[in-house]
Amino acid sequence: MSDISAIFGPQINVTVIDHDPIYLEWLSGILTNLGYQVSTHISFDSAIMALSVAPPHILLLDYEMTLGLGNCCIDDFRQKYPQIFMPVIYLLEPQSVTPLLRRMSIIDTYILRGASVPELAERLVQQLKFHNLPGVLQELGRYTLSYHNHAPMRMEITALFADVRGFTAYSENHDPETVAAILNSMFEIMARYVLNCGGIIDKYIGDSLMAIFGYAPESRNNHAASALTAADAIMNGISAELNNNPMLSRGTPLSIGIGMHSGMAVVGPIGASFRRDMTAIGGSINLASRLCAKAAPGEILISEDTYRQIASLVQVISCRHLNLKGLGEQTAYSVRLGLKTLSWQ
Does the predicted model carry a pTM greater than 0.85? Predict the structure, then answer.
C-alpha cells in the first residue's frame, strides 16, 4: 500500500465522525499510517464548527449515528454552507446500503464498516480521483484548476458512450426521487470504473455517460484497451446492481448499451470565457455516440478502428455493417473482454 502523500502530495485532510470511540481510534490510526492528516469527532454537532472553518478533502461519516438518517445532517450542512465542497464516504452496515442509495448525493459514496484496510485505502484514493482534487490533477497530468487558460489540442483518444436502456419507461412509472436514486447509483458504478481504468468523465447526458480515454497519462499509450476494460467492468457492475438492488426487482427492466471508437479528436476546454468545460469534439466522438445508439441492451459495440487496436483482447460476438446517420456505412464489432475471437456472424 502506497503512502498517500507519495501519490497526491502532502496535506490531504480527512475528518472522521463516528459514535464508536474504539473504531474511531482504530480508523484514525489507519488513515494516519496511510499518510492522511486526520481529525476525529464523536458527533456531527461537535464537528460543525471545524468543518465550516477548515473543511477536509473528504469526510468519513457514521451513517447510523442519527438512527439511519446519516445524510440528513450533511444535507443541512450543505444547505447552510453551499460554498463548501466536501464529498462524504459513509461508514455503514450492509443492511443500510439500500436506504442510503435512495437518498445519497452523487458526489458521495460508502464503504462497509467491516471493510479491509486495502479496501478502505482504495476507496479513499478513488474518491479523491473522482472529484479531481488539485493534487490529483497534477499527478494525473490532466488539467489544472486554471485549465480554461489552456488551448484545446488534437490527439488520439478512445471515446466511450454508455446509455441506460429502458430508463425512459422506468421513469414514467416511478416517483422522481426513486428515479434520481437509481440513476445516481448506476452513474456511480459507471464513473468509478471509468476512473479506475484511467479514463476521464466528459459529461452526463440525461441517462447516458460520455468518457474519454487517452488524455490522462495512465491510459495514453493503451487508450482502446483501457476503454474496453472499463466497458466490460461497467457491464458486469451494472448487471450486479440490477440483480441486487431491491428498487429494481420489479417493473421495467433496465440495461446498458455501450459504443466505442478510437480516433483523432480535439480535447480541451470548450465554452465561453467565463464558463468552460473539459470535453472532446470531432467526428470520432460522433461515431462513438452513433455506435452506442445502435448497441443492443447489454452490448458493447466498437468501431473497426478500435477493434484493430484491441483485436487480441476481445471475444467477437458478431461483426456487422451499419449505416450511420451522417457517417455512412461503418463496420462494427459486438465484443466482450476475452483472450480470443470466438465467432463471426
Answer: no
